[in-house]
Amino acid sequence: MTTDLIGKQIPVLDKGYIQLLDMMPHPNTGISGDLAIVNAARVSFLGESKGSAQDKKLLFYLLRHRHTSPFEQVEFKFRVRAPVVTWWQWVRHRTWNFNAQSGRYTPFQENDFYEPDIWRKQAADNKQASEGELDAAQAAELSKLLTEHYERGFDLYSKALEMGVAREQARVFLSGFAVYYTWVAKIDAHNLMHFLSLRMPNDAQYEIRVYARAIFDNFFKPLMPWTAEAFEKYVLK
Ligand SMILES: Cc1cc2nc3c(=O)[nH]c(=O)nc-3n(C[C@H](O)[C@H](O)[C@H](O)COP(=O)(O)OP(=O)(O)OC[C@H]3O[C@@H](n4cnc5c(N)ncnc54)[C@H](O)[C@@H]3O)c2cc1C
User: Fold this and answer.
1) Tens of pLDDT, residues 87-110
2) Of 123, 145, 173, at which residue does a domain stop?
3) DSSP letter, residue 105
């Protein structure tokens, strides 16, 4: 049931998640995202659905020929919890509308830090990428050091708060890229496909790729199966 997907929360990374808060058209209207796109396109000649086969054909035609505005008639709203390293890359996409947690209002908690499952090695031929993993002994050592580092930073943060330092400034003691943030973000299907096309491929950093993949597999694909199929065929190829 696609209505069950509204509110569904998918765990991502060690402490993060992506949750679909809302969608337009809402699944309980009985109008799928795919149909909303077809209906929007057919307004050109004041028509609507002509049955599944023709509707799907039209939708594929629209995406193949980059007639993109009907895809903007579908919207998704998500709640995301992810480390700042993910947030930092996500906000480069200007077509999302965001509201984020504020470290000025809400103090961070001791377990608000990203602890990677694996440690990826620097890629030899791509300055931006990783390849392979550290061996188990090295990884265990590094994870232990990271925990100590987080604990030390959190102790200093707590001490600064106790001394009366403002939350907005005390956070300089925290491990900036690793701290978990929560935000609400809205986007239309056209711009979401652009985001997914950049953040799902292997050259995107793992810590954002897993969120993009979670959106596509758990929400986009079941809620807009024709669009997802056309997107895989013409955009992701
Ligand atoms: C693998 C990878 C590596 C990256 N590495 C770096 C890096 O090293 N350094 C870095 O700074 N960034 C980096 N980025 C970020 C990248 O440069 C883009 O800022 C980001 O992917 C957002 O893309 P966008 O502008 O197409 O998306 P959006 O901001 O979502 O915009 C969508 C589209 O709208 C249009 N648009 C939006 N705003 C404007 C505007 N003001 N003027 C004109 N057209 C507009 C453009 O057509 C754009 O493609 C990287 C991204 C990826 C995926």
Assistant:
1) 999 999 999 999 998 778 778 887
2) 173
3) T
Q: Do 142 and 33 belong to one domain?
A: no
DSSP alpha helix (H) spans, the chain? 33-42, 52-64, 84-90, 136-162, 167-170, 189-199, 206-215, 221-223, 225-230
> Ligand 1 pocket check: which of 68, 85, 86, 92 to mutate, most ligand atoms within 8 Å of Cβ?
92
Q: Which of 72, 93, 192, 207 to mutate to test the pocket of ligand 1 (most atoms within 8 A of CB)?
A: 93
Q: Which residues does the annotation mark as catalytic?
A: 199
Residues 131 and 43 in one domain: no
Q: For ligand 1, what atom is nearest to the CA of residue 95?
A: 30
Task: Tell me: do 83 and 125 sit in the same domain.
Answer: no
Q: Whose Cα sits closest to atom 11 in ligand 1? A: 92
Instruction: Note whether residue 142 is domain-resident.
Output: yes
Does the global pTM surpass 0.85? Answer: yes
